[in-house]
Amino acid sequence: SPADTTGVCICTVTAGTATIPSDAALKILKVDSGATASLSGDLSLSTTYTNNGTVSGVGKVILNGSLAQNIYGTGTTRNLELNNSAGATVQDSLGINGVLTLTAGTLTTNNKLKLEATSATTYGQIAGTGAGSLSGNLTAEMQINGGGAGWRPISSPVSGATLAQLSDDVNLNF
Predict the structure, then answer these.
(1) Can you tell me whether residue 163 is helix, strand or coil?
(2) Of 76, 111, 117, 153, which has the highest C-beta tally within 10 A?
């Protein structure tokens, strides 16, 4: 973990779990496959975010650079905030299993953003606050508990979508 939480440094987590202290500011965060970065509080990133492992904890990764930022890797992030008017781009894939907050700027998904479900009641969400935006598609997962045959409630979070519009994406039996 970074030794100086007020300066700008580079942090690479190669194995195990590294705890990153509250209000840390990094230039680059890189989390390798099989490794975990646990956030004690918010973490500000000014350039590149590479996550091939897991970023967990109570804080959020805040992309707040002055130039457009890139997100690399195939890992999962608990909470992410975009607060960069120049925006950010998902280059590989990005899994969010907490809250995505779009405070400022455009997050270009390249159709590689997934709001992941970890249980029937815990799943990735987009905060309803902020002036930022998304460009591109995303995948939203939801786990539905089993229990045999029967009805399962399903609804579209998209305003104006009809059941007929969902029928080409989901097997619906009328």
Answers:
(1) helix
(2) 76
Give the number of other CB atoms < 10 A from CB of residue 170.
9
Assign 4 a pLDDT band (cuts: 50, 70, 90).
Answer: very low
CB proximity list for 174: less than 8 A, separation 6 or greater: none
Is 117 in contact with 92 (CB distance < 8 Å)? Answer: no
Q: Which two tokens stand for residue 137?
A: 């598609």
| Helix (H), strand (E) at residue 133 | strand 133-135
Query: Residue 168 carries which DSSP code?
Result: T
In this prediction the pTM is 0.81
Q: Could you tell me if 49 and 81 are in contact, meaning their C-beta atoms sit under 8 angstroms apart? A: no
Query: β-strand 88-90 against 106-108: which pairing, if any?
Result: parallel
